[in-house]
Amino acid sequence: MKASIAIQILPAAATTDELIRIVDEVIAYIQSSGLNYHVGPFETTVEGDDIDRLMDIAKECQHIAVSAGADKVSSYIKTVYYPDGEVLTIDGKIGKYAQA
Question: With a threshold of 0.90, does the pTM exceed it?
Answer without folding.
Answer: yes
